[in-house]
């Protein structure tokens, strides 16, 4: 993995902005950074392996410290939280072992015998929009189901009882924990404790969005002051660009 050039990252940002779903943004960023992988390979990574790569890229670009503001569910106080990227890395690598595990999982429960794989970005992109959480869960399981037997009879995903859908969902989370990071939070005001999901895709994307707008603003100022074309300004190293901006301010 490499940190993409300013031009490549801006192209990925533009691509991601046009994507209708966060999954498309995650894939746009990783396609720019993981030049040794084909886009379809990235799209077939488990969600945990994909998020692990996003976390690595985020660390390379903006450092290991993550900060966010959240609201205490008990007393509604606003809380500023800070944590380290290492605190939320579950799997040390998104490597082969995890991808091997992703291929074949099974669950036997209440006379049902299910074989399935872990979901990937293509599965998320294929989900119909606007459904409830339960509907999405069922659609996802339909995609990843490899075999479903009730006794000797082969059944479809639509026939799986709710309890089994929940059990499959839990097993997928356990097998790919990086895909579902939760933070342990405590409120300094009322001492409430709770666990909150942390979504690296939306977190990182909002940083990339702010970064891209900042770069374009700098291009705008330099182009206006010196008449340089956009490509020439973007080809400058960030440090050199900043020097010229400082001179404009002087
Ligand atoms: Zn509180």
Number of domains: 2
The kinds of small molecule bound in this structure are:
zinc ion
N/C terminus separation: 38 Å
Strand content bin: 15-25%
List the helices and strands in order. HHHHEEHEEHHEEHEEHHH
Protein name: Phage baseplate protein
Pfam families: T4_baseplate
InterPro entries: Baseplate_phage_T4-like
Keywords:
binds zinc ion, 250 residues, 4-stranded antiparallel sheet, alpha+beta, Phage baseplate protein, 18% strand, two-stranded antiparallel sheet, globular, 2 domains
Question: What can you see in these coordinates?
Answer:
With 250 residues, the protein is α+β, with helices and mostly antiparallel strands. It has helices spanning 6-18, 22-33, 39-43, 47-62, 96-103, 121-126, 133-144, 162-175, 200-226, 230-235, 238-249; strands at residues 65-71, 78-84, 105-109, 112-116, 145-150, 153-154, 181-186, 193-198. Strands 3-4-5-6 form a four-stranded antiparallel sheet. It has a two-stranded antiparallel sheet with strand order 1-2. A hairpin with a 6-residue loop joins β7 and β8. The chain starts with 5 loop residues before the first helix and ends with a helix. Bound molecules: zinc ion. Zinc ion is lined by residues 72, 74-75, 77, 187, 189-190, 192. This is Phage baseplate protein. InterPro entries: Baseplate_phage_T4-like. It comes from Bradyrhizobium lablabi.
């Amino acid at each position: 993995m490499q940190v993409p050039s300013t031009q490549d990252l801006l192209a990925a940002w533009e691509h991601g902005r046009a994507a209708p779903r966060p999954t498309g943004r995650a894939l746009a960023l990783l396609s720019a950074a993981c030049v040794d992988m084909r886009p379809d390979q990235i799209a077939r990574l488990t969600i945990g392996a994909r998020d692990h790569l996003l976390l690595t890229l985020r660390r390379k670009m903006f450092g290991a410290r993550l900060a966010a503001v959240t609201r205490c569910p008990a007393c509604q106080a606003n809380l500023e939280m800070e944590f380290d990227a290492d605190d939320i890395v579950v799997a040390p690598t998104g490597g082969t072992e995890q991808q091997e595990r992703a291929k074949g999982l099974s669950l036997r429960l209440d006379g049902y015998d299910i074989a399935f794989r872990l979901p990937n970005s293509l599965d998320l992109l294929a989900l119909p929009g606007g459904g409830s959480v339960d509907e999405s869960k069922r659609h996802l399981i339909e995609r990843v189901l490899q075999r479903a037997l009730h006794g000797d009879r082969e059944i479809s995903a639509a026939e799986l009882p709710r309890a089994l859908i929940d059990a499959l969902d839990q097993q997928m989370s356990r097998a790919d924990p990086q895909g579902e990071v939760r933070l342990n939070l405590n409120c300094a005001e009322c001492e409430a404790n709770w666990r909150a999901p942390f979504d690296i895709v939306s977190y990182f994307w909002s940083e990339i969005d702010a970064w891209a707008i900042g770069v374009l603003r700098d291009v705008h100022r330099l182009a206006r002051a010196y008449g340089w074309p956009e490509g020439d300004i973007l080809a400058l190293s960030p440090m050199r660009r900043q020097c010229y901006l400082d001179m404009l301010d002087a």
